[in-house]
Amino acid sequence: MTVTQVNELVKALLDGAAPLQNVHVQGELSNYKIYPSGHHYFTLKDGSSAIRCVMFASSAMRLRFRPENGMKVVAAGRVSVYPRDGAYQLYCSSLTVAGVGDLYVAYEQLKEKLLARGLFDEDHKKPLPRYPGRIAIVTSSAGAAIHDMIRILRRRYPIAKVILLPVRVQGTEAPGEIAEAIAYANEHHLADVLITGRGGGSIEDLWAFNDERVAYAIYDSEIPVISAVGHEPDVTIADFVADARASTPSNAAEIAVPDMAELLGRLAHQDGRMRQGLLGAAEARRQRLESAASRRVWQDSGALLQDKRLALDSVTARLEGAAQRSLQQKAQRLATLASAVDAMSPLKVLSRGYAIATDEREQTIRTASQLTEGDRVHLRFHSGGAVCRVESRED
Amino acid sequence: MTKKMDFEQSMARIDEIAAALERGDATLSESMALFQEGTALIGKCREELDKAQQQVVQLMRSADGTAEEAPFAVEE
User: Fold this and answer.
1) Would you give the DSSP letter of residue A217?
2) Looking at beta carbons, which residues of chain B come within 8 Å of A284?
3) Residue B46 in contact with partner chain A when CB distance is under 8 A
């Protein structure tokens, strides 16, 4: 017999043994090697023995995690002989992690790798804009998530434009599509903030958001990204990389925009502050004037002082009157502008077709005697105004 | 007062004006000019918020790299 004949005979025996043709072998990985050909070679061992294993590239491509020495795994395949070496080995068609599950391991591995590469660094995270004008959403156009988000955006902040970039959010094509859409939004400066995510599902359903391509797309995004994947307890790699993490798609919509009701409240508050501030400023000046006017030096007798005092009184009165009138005028004009706020506004009057005429010093014209022919007069209407020239006066 | 201010700029300017008026260190006529500007901005912001009808579009992209905005119907 030749060596080859022996090996062929043993191989035929083993290949004919039914129990060896479909085995699931539990053991610990050791000596794991990946060859340039893409084939994986390793040894599976337990407490007392070991078996050589090979996994061809076509099977290895389907691995969902990165095998590491020491891992407890289950290898499925058949036992046969490699005639050249006269060695029997396990031809492994699939490898899964015993116990916790492949996806869990893959997730932990990717998390560790990206953490080491700085993808989760707080320093890299961008602040979200307070008042985004455009919001890009990278998610499925089917499903409840997009509708939930739009409903909330509409209620809270309808002035923003929403741009949906529809992508698949599960299946093998999903990660590539999500990553590409995020890159596209950046390339075309589509938005001020970007939300990517999907509704809840199993860990497999959410898997696209644990993909390295998606992680890098988020990391590379110039547009701040809010991740919104699944429900509260679901934490994906995308959540770690994103500039802000929302617990659900609805929550992402709340994080992305301010609340209109709050904004209106703030505007009202600012309005009040301004009014108080202006009144306070006028009041302070009046008091200063009064205290100056009441100082002892003005009250001494003597015609000259008396004259001066009278003069001052009249100046004071004029100043007060001017301030008062000016304030009134301004208040009227402001009320016109803030018409929505003030129901008592002169705008109402203007809206009935009246106009306010002012001269070049912005003094309201109350009598024709304030004018001479050729004067320029500014008319303010309910909407807009006009500059006119006086042709003749009618007293 | 520029008309091109976006919402964020307007809000920031309103904050600024309210704070300046509260400090009260401007002259009376400056104060009144500020007040007028602030009130106008507040009116503009309110109007924007009141009038807004959210625009929702779906970006349809073709293989040749062109993109087109299509309306997207929201389920109530």
Assistant:
1) H
2) 24
3) yes
- The confidence score (pLDDT) of residue A372 equals 85
pLDDT reading at A340 higher than 50:
no
CA distance B61 to A54: 44
Predicted complex ipTM exceeds 0.90: no
Chain-chain contact of A277 with B55 (C-beta, under 8 angstroms): no
State how far the alpha carbon of A76 is from the alpha carbons of A73, A99, A382, in Å. 10, 15, 84
Taking residues A366-383, report their average pLDDT.
Answer: 84
Measured between beta carbons, which residues in chain B are less than 8 angstroms from residue A130?
8, 11
Q: Is B41 on the interface with A (CB under 8 A)?
A: no
* CB contact residues (below 8 A), chain A span 341-370, against chain B: 341
Please give the residue that has the higher pLDDT: either A349 or A270. A270
> What share of chain A has pLDDT > 90, as a percent?
49
Residue A172 CB contacts under 8 Å (≥ 6 apart), including other chains:
none
Which residue type, as a one-letter code, is found at position A71?
M
CB–CB contact A151 B76 (8 Å): yes
**Nearest-neighbour CA in chain A from B67: distance (Å):** 10
Taking the C-alpha atoms of residue A145 and residue A137, their distance in angstroms, rounded to an integer, is 10
Cross-chain CB nearest to A131 (options B8, B26, B47): B8
Q: Quick one: which of A256, A259, A320 has its CA closest to A290?
A: A320
Whose structure tokens read 């890098």? A216
What is the per-residue pLDDT for A349?
Answer: 67
Torsion (CA) A374, A375, A380, A386 in degrees, nearest 10: 40
**Residues for chain B: how many in total?**
76
Spatial distance between the Cα atoms of B32 and A331, rounded to a whole number of angstroms: 9
The reported pLDDT for the residue numbered A166 is 95
- Give exposure, A85-111, as e/b (b: 16+ Cβ within 10 Å): eeebbbebebbbbeeeeebebbbeebb
* Closest by Cβ to B22, choosing from A147, A266, A273: A273
- As a dihedral over the C-alpha atoms of residue B55, residue B61, residue B66, residue B69, rounded to 10 degrees, the angle is -20
